Amino acid sequence: MDAVQDEAAGKRARGLDRAFEILDFLRQKRQALKPNEIAAQIGAPRSSVYELVNLLLQNGILEFTGGEGRVYLGRKLYFLGAAYENHFDFTRECEAALEQLANETRETAQFCMLDGNRYTVVRMREGARPFRISTDVGQSVPIPWTASGRLLVAHLSDQEILNFIPAQDFRLPNGDWLDPQNFIVEVRQAEREGLFTFNSIVDSFTHCFAVPVRGEEGYAAATLCLVTPRDDGIANRDHYLHCLKKAAAGLEHAPARSKRG
Amino acid sequence: MDAVQDEAAGKRARGLDRAFEILDFLRQKRQALKPNEIAAQIGAPRSSVYELVNLLLQNGILEFTGGEGRVYLGRKLYFLGAAYENHFDFTRECEAALEQLANETRETAQFCMLDGNRYTVVRMREGARPFRISTDVGQSVPIPWTASGRLLVAHLSDQEILNFIPAQDFRLPNGDWLDPQNFIVEVRQAEREGLFTFNSIVDSFTHCFAVPVRGEEGYAAATLCLVTPRDDGIANRDHYLHCLKKAAAGLEHAPARSKRG
DNA sequence: CATCTGTGTCCAATATACCGTACATGTGAT
DNA sequence: ATCACATGTACGGTATATTGGACACAGATG
């Protein structure tokens, strides 16, 4: 990632990067793990991981939980995250927008952002459908897999996009290869139209709608999305896009704005 | 602060500790600062702070905001905090408990925890009072200043308590000195009775009620509190304590329990 | 003009953080 | 008993992270 600059083999890693690699890994796994397991799965020296884990435990960044010496993200991270959320106070308005979308469309509505060089669902309202069609909140997903991804990188140049997205993220879950040049074309199209919709490429039965929520810098700081069954999505396309744009307009001042002026 | 183990002068600080010192400092300040200012105010070498800030920026732990090169807590921290909150899923039940307390008492209700070796208000419902009597959410406060503090350290031995709480935290905001031995007596009393109430020692017009929320380890993982005008508090003492205990009982299984079992 | 403060960058010295390796333990399989 | 493996601890060598100080610049102040 960011963290993994793996220039070449045989380099010593910086403690700080290793530490956040551990934290990110635990977040991805969403469960407590033993230091040993962490070391094995992220491919880091065991002694280093033990040392870092102990340091992080002392600072409250990690906590023992789940027994057997397993550790998970700690309370301090919750406090820091709450401070961020309080400063860039998008949560309240975001929930309102999702609520509104849910009422108007009865479909699954999501608020999405970049997490480093991947995509993540920050908040979600499940639709009224009897079956559940959605990614989990907080999971990082390759940018090219998502409709929102086309919008979230649109402020970068072609070359920057290719540098930014890890090469292996162009491989789809079914093993197919997505041509990066094709992706770029879609990015530019999404940029021009201010929206992107497609039949999901990670499953075979949903249609996805995404519109940008522009921050103060003028480009997409986040997206609002709908994930719908294919027939419903295509049948209600105009209505859904109208709802999304209206909801996004209501948010357009919120992200990256301080609560206390 | 917590992180500062300052054994003696003249020691090199570990990057990780320094980094989290920076993060904690920004959280306390609740505003974006320039690296230079951070270095000056936490008493760290400028060159170190610049290097660390740049590293943290690259990882998304810090973000530029506020212009002029100022930095504040970053989006990644929000994601990590959200993962913590999702794992130890106390938020929903916590809000319900505060809601209930607010309805029953019309007073300011708080959910509080330890943040390292200090006390912090995690969530709060303002009371119906025309005036506002409360600490800000997310600020760290010396443990001895608060009613909850008596409960949150009760699982420690006398000596552990004295080691745990920074000596200067026994000095009250008005300059008075709180005798640690006296504090210990109150801790043991609170432990026996399963509650603590007093006229606030940080102002002259409120009365505070605190009851423990016990985690799976059996000791106070958090507290529920009411902050009331003195007359009202004393007049409604029994009623308020009853409400608090009921609300705490409703939470007692929640903290430190995994959502996905 | 000179001077001072606030800001950011660059650099070399050395204290030490990272890591490989060995050791100690427990558990389960053969 | 012997092996294999998972887990945690201990320790020394060396690559390097941390740090003080030099440098550059801009704005304010006198």
Automatic annotation (TrEMBL), chains A, B:
PROSITE patterns named in the record: HTH_ICLR, ICLR_ED
SMART domains in the record: HTH_ICLR
Claim: Nucleotide-binding is one of the keywords in the record: no
Domain of life according to the entry: Bacteria
Keywords from the named record: DNA-binding, Transcription, Transcription regulation
HTH iclR-type domain: residues covered: 13-75
GO molecular function, one term: DNA-binding transcription factor activity
Domain IclR-ED positions: 76-257
Alphabetical list of InterPro entries matching this protein: GAF-like_dom_sf (IPR029016), HTH_MetabolicPath_Reg (IPR050707), Tscrpt_reg_IclR_C (IPR014757), Tscrpt_reg_IclR_N (IPR005471), WH-like_DNA-bd_sf (IPR036388), WH_DNA-bd_sf (IPR036390)
GO process terms (BP): negative regulation of DNA-templated transcription
Annotated protein name in UniProt: IclR family transcriptional regulator
